[in-house]
Amino acid sequence: MDNHEAVTRLLLSRRRSLHAYISAIVRDAALAEELFQDVSVVILQRAGDFDPNGDFDPNGDFWVLARGIARRQALAALRERKPSLKSLSPDFLDALDEGFDAVPGDDAALADALGRCIEAMPAAWRDIVALRYWDSLAVEAVATRVRQTTNTISTMLNQIRARLADGVRRQLDAGV
């Protein structure tokens, strides 16, 4: 199997995860699909970057490269198409990377589970998550915006992250 064929197989096996990753960044289905196609072209053009006899572990070099390309293109598209949008928090992007790295293979179930968990949260918590991670506000700014203390918001964010992690884990374990 040559590089191009091996990379094509990997790309197809990770399609849903890569698309979900892009969607989580841009939060626009049409834009995510367009970017997925662009990212796929770039990945296929870079097929020579991989050793066809080497390890094509989906959580290894291929996934790191694919995710890096997707991240850069998604952020560039956001800057170009939504200039009024503040840049996404590096904490959000790092947490997103960690979440996608935690699930082996193509498992869009992670994105689905996370979406269900976020939707099930109280509206006030969803607002805090949006302010902190989507709007990239510092904890202090979130606290000011929702008229709470910084300590209260920090505690809430820790609770939210713990509940999301637990909820996602339970859903994945249950095969939901």
Quaternary organization: single chain
- Domain count: 2
How much of the residues is beta strand, in percent?
under 5%
CATH topology of the largest domain: Rna Polymerase Sigma Factor, Chain: A
What is the CATH C-level name of the largest domain? Answer: Mainly Alpha
Task: Choose one word for the global shape.
Answer: globular
In the CATH hierarchy, the architecture of the largest domain is Orthogonal Bundle
| SS content category | mainly alpha
Question: Can you characterise this structure?
Answer:
The chain is mostly helical. Helices cover 74% and strands 0% of the residues.
Q: Tags for this entry?
A:
176 residues, mainly alpha, Rna Polymerase Sigma Factor, Chain: A, Arc Repressor Mutant, subunit A, 9 helices, 74% helix
Give a nutshell description of this structure.
The protein is mainly alpha-helical and 176 residues long. The chain has helices at residues 3-13, 15-26, 29-45, 61-81, 90-101, 109-120, 123-134, 139-146, 150-174.
Question: Could you give the topology of this structure?
Answer:
Elements: H1 3-13, H2 15-26, H3 29-45, H4 61-81, H5 90-101, H6 109-120, H7 123-134, H8 139-146, H9 150-174
